[in-house]
Write a structure and sequence with these properties.
The complex is a heterodimer of chains A (about 325) and B (about 450). Chain A contains 16 helices and two strands. Chain A has about 325 residues and is an all-alpha fold. Chain A has two domains: about 50 residues, no CATH class; about 240 residues, Orthogonal Bundle (MetI-like fold), CATH 1.10.3720.10. Chain B is globular and about 65 Å long. The chains are: A mainly alpha (about 325), B alpha/beta (about 450).
Chain lengths: ~325, ~450
Amino acid sequence: MSTPTELSEPAAPGTRGSHKTAVRQAKPGRVKRLSKRDKVVLGIMVGIPTLIQLAFVWIPTLLSVLLSFARWNGLSLSDIRAAGMANYTYAFTDNPAFWPAVQHNILWLLFLAVVATPLGLLLAVLLDQQIRGSKIYQSIFFVPVMLSLALVGIIWQLFYQKDNGLLNFLLGTAGTPQAVDWFGNSSVNIWAALIAATWRHAGYVMILYLAGLKGVDASLKEAASLDGANATQTFFRIVFPAMAPINIVIVVITIIESLRAFDVVWVINKGTNGLELISALVITYLIGEGQSIGIGSAFAVILLVISLVPITIYLSRTFRKEKF
Amino acid sequence: MSINEDRPASGNIRPGFDRRTLLKTLGVGAVGAAAIPLLAACTGGSGPGASAAASTSLTFGSGSSDDVPKAAYKAVTDAFTAKTKIKVTTNVVPHNDFQNKISTYLQGSPDDAFTWFAGYRMRYYAGKGLLAPIDDVWEKVGANYSDAMKKASTGPDGKMYFVPNYNYPWGFFYRKSVWAEKGYAIPTTFDELKTLCAKMKSDGLIPIEFTDKDGWPAMGTFDYINMRLNGYQFHMDLTAHKESWDQKKVSDVFDTWKALLPYQNPGALGMTWQDGAINMGKKKSGMFLLGSFVTQQYTDKAILDDIDFFPFPEIAMEGRDAVEAPIDGLLLSKKGGNNQGARDFLAFMGTPAGQDAYAKVDPSNIATAKGADTSTFSPLTKKCAETIANAKSISQFFDRDALPAMANNVMIPALQGFIKDGTVDVKNLESQAKALYAAQ
């Protein structure tokens, strides 16, 4: 329970042994040690983030939950009318895009977990070797993570375009009736979008694992090779388990990325025709001309509830660990 | 490319939004939209002192942010100031932002006059009392407009609210040389259209160019078949949800359309209208049902001069009386209603002088007032203008006539599904419409 001020104070008890006594005797003295200025600074440092958190996260979340049970045209506050569960009925039964969206989000998660994340790990392991130009390769693979939405759209448009796109050109089908309509055909466009998402996600995972690999003690690897383990064994038995903290971060990131998957799909066709995603539904109903605040809020709450599951699991794991 | 595949600026009413809006919005988070009540509370009530400046100056909010329309509106305000000595302060807002934020804009401190379009949202805000009626302006300029224009400018209470500036028609566009070479004749009935399509198909053409990756172009086909089959009034009642979607009249529209589906470009769902225009330019397809903005895609004058136009053929009723021709123009905000200068400005926009000032800079659209200068029109533009002038009723395109949420969130996926497999669930359309219109 020692506060940072105690530690920074030169007169603070330096050893653990004297800590208890210090607290006991210095009950009144402890208050003195925090000068008025300290209190103000502390208050500001704790208060401002709390206020920001409240204003931008908790209050909007709460209002969003409330609005999801209301009908509102966004004009005056007196126009808000209770709607009961109507918005949720709409979301679950009337809206034909909702269940496909859930399926696509699950597919997205599976694809990222099975393809994109391992690919990022592979890239990280390869680039962690002492190969020439490793930094350049790292930059190349990381670039997609930094690109703006608009650029991503243009790049994949050039790649997937039906008649003039690179992919159909390479397949030799460009301009022929056999050309695959990567964006328009609702049975292939989700895969096209997943490839584009992988292209971004793998770079992200790669950077995280590169940092993780650097953190693995080299002596562990040495010891393993002395014991006669080959490269594969060393990696899977020694290095990978040693990166446990990073692995958990990656799992969480993969889940979160699949839940907020949005940008690639939005630039293709705003999340219709085989590319429905929950996040795209939230945006469709909350922002822009097609705004329908109650229904959009309902979608947002559904997404929130789904997101709470992995977040809760992650947090409970982390806190349980800290207790040890 | 893919971000801005929307209709050109002049007719752009798409809810697509640019990256900045997107990031701004996402920054606050999806749930952040709940903060809207806070915003609304902050901006509520228009600023006082607006009427103090009456008659000597006015503010003008413009969503025409692209270079050409922006310069064109500047020419209009300059001409107005030169004529009346009333100063106009123009606030230009990027058009997507302007459209997306119109609700907050009108409730906050809007400009006296602002750019908007005829249709559902004009009537909706008029009904909510956020606009000022301008019957006095129409007394001055009414004679300049056709009945169809007047109908499109009227609010739900029967008062006038809107002064049309320009519009553009939707219809079939085609290359004259292709038709002359193959000896095709313009179809005036739906049966003739089908026969023509069959012939074109056997000639190796895609009969009807069709693109719907962005979702909205297919609404043009729906609107026309609906109006030709059930009449203009049914289109208006359906888009206002005074008619149910779950009825035979609506499923008949889709059944009729089904006869055309085999002749429309099968790749439609992966193509933007620009892709379609290129196809027609290359003589791969016979005709293209689109707005006259399609001509903007042809920079080669030889091709441009080869483009011609015919209205959608007759099906069951009202012949070819109704034309789909979205109108852009000006409205007066509630606050601007107190400013005589702003009323004068709207009246000026409704005169041939005001329309000519605009059209001189932006000739891609068609002036709506009678007496506006048509001497610089190309033969095609002249034809488009005549079609509109002769129309008995003018519709605004589905996404302007209907509730935007219905058009964007329900109709786009439904039409894309129909294009894909020829089925549509009108019962579901009705239950979605019910929920969305109830929230208004």
